Amino acid sequence: MNKRIVIIGTLASGVLGFRKDLIKNLVEAKYEVYVLAVDYSDNTKLAVQKLGAIPLDYKLDRAGLNPIADISNLVSLIIILKRLKPNTVFSYFIKPAVYGSIAARFANVPNIVSMIEGMGYVHTPSVSGFSFKKKVLQRVQTLMFMFSLPLCRKILVLNCDDQRDICRVPLLNSEKVILLGPIGLNLSDYEYSPISKIDEETIRFIFVGRLLEEKGINQYLLAAKKVKLMYPKSEFVVIGSFDRDNPAGLPEDELRMYVEDGTITYPGFVDNVADWISNCHVFVLPSFYREGVPRSTQEAMAIGRAVITTDSAGCRETVEDGVNGFLIPRWDVEALSNAMIEFIKSPEKCIEMGEKSYLKACREYDASLINPRLVRLLETDIT
User: Fold this and answer.
1) What φ, ψ does residue 206 adopt, rounded to 5°?
2) Helices 132-148 and 94-106 meet at what angle, rounded to 10?
3) For residue 36, what are the β-bridge partners?
4) pTM
5) How many CB atoms lie within 10 A of CB 223?
6) What does the pLDDT look like over 327-341, one tens digit per residue?
7) Which of 101, 110, 189, 201 could form a disulfide with 233 if both were Cys (CB 3.0 to 4.6 A apart)?
8) What pLDDT shows up at residue 86?
9) How far is it between the farthest Cα atoms of the chain?
10) pLDDT tens sequence across 160-200
């Protein structure tokens, strides 16, 4: 049997951050693994090689809709796959899943598997619903799914909302859509750090994520300001990078105002996020983005932190309301403030709910348990 697999992603940082353990599992299973990314450097290529895989460059406009460029990139991908002659192509994220599955079919790859990790920006609503632009893009995306996903042997999704939406794609056999659940993480990279002692007046909250409107950063800042006025010793941390090219990105001047008035702490870029989470009591992600299952929340839970997040796709999978944290409505600053105040008034909940988060992470987010199943899904029809 040909045990050659091509993994098609986007950024090299995503390969090393989210696919490292899967690659190791595939190599251990005697697969010859090729990993395609759009922005390899010499260092990231070397890191992939150290995992036992072969890094390859390819072109993909991750967000654009230029048909000429897309067709050119698709042809180039077909040529790569015809040269490699893999038995399996595994694509993840929406655009690689679309173009990877089409290219794999043209290259006569027998086993095509795609993974949709959240429905993304196009399916992310605002308070007023979906804009005309997003409605048009949703139709375009549906057409792309119609032409690509039926070519797959399996389509993997991470949450029930995505499973429901993907199963509605015309021409797609819904039996191909498999609910995998979270892709998980290496728990040893996020050491459990139970809270043993709490200063009842100083509960520290932390937001970790891209500083985008859809991630709920605006709601977090507004709630932090409100709670800080009522409980001056409460503390609020923001970890994340600015996206200056994104119209939904938080302006740096706006964040600076919250820093200068003492509402939040913003250390800028950090490479020790786990340490910052360990030094806080409650993790907060008021996201209304169409997530898969947010990795940052999984990381916080593995460390042992209670969570406040929204009752929305992907996010709701991480929290049992009132058990390991609180679920709040999207865009609701009042509900977010009240959830924060609940922890301040009852600080023992930080400890109790944090322990429940850790136990849930051990049950559901351990990559050493998830990746072997994913490997089986890539090589057989076992579900």
Assistant:
1) -140, 135
2) 30
3) 8, 56
4) 0.91
5) 27
6) 999 999 999 999 999
7) 201
8) 96
9) 66
10) 999 999 999 999 999 999 999 999 999 999 999 999 778 76
- Owner of token pair 């992939």: 48
The answer to whether the Cα torsion of 122, 125, 126, 128 is positive or negative is: positive
Burial of 175 from C-beta contacts in 10 A (0-12 / 13-18 / 19+): exposed
Residue 367's closest CA among 315, 295, 300? Answer: 295
**What would the mean pLDDT of 113-132 be, rounded to a whole number?**
87
> In whole angstroms, what is the distance from residue 57 CA to residue 37 CA?
6
Q: Can you tell me the distance from the alpha carbon of 104 to that of 101, in angstroms, rounded to the nearest whole number?
A: 5
**Span 340-353, average pLDDT:** 95
Cβ-Cβ contacts under 8 Å for 202 (sequence gap 6 or more): 233, 234, 235
Unique residue bearing structure tokens 């800080």: 228
Pull the structure tokens for residue 211: 């500083």
57 and 36 in contact (C-beta within 8 Å)? yes
DSSP state of 185: B
Structure tokens of 2? 């040909």
Outline where DSSP puts E strands in 105-225: 111-116, 154-157, 177-179, 204-208
pLDDT of 318: 96
Q: Quote the distance between the C-alpha of residue 56 and its chain's center.
A: 23
The three-state secondary structure class of 89 is: strand
Residue with tokens 């899943």: 97
Distance CA 54, CA 304 (A): 36
Listed in sequence order, the residues at least 6 apart from 273 whose beta carbon sits closer than 8 Å to its beta carbon are: 208, 239, 299
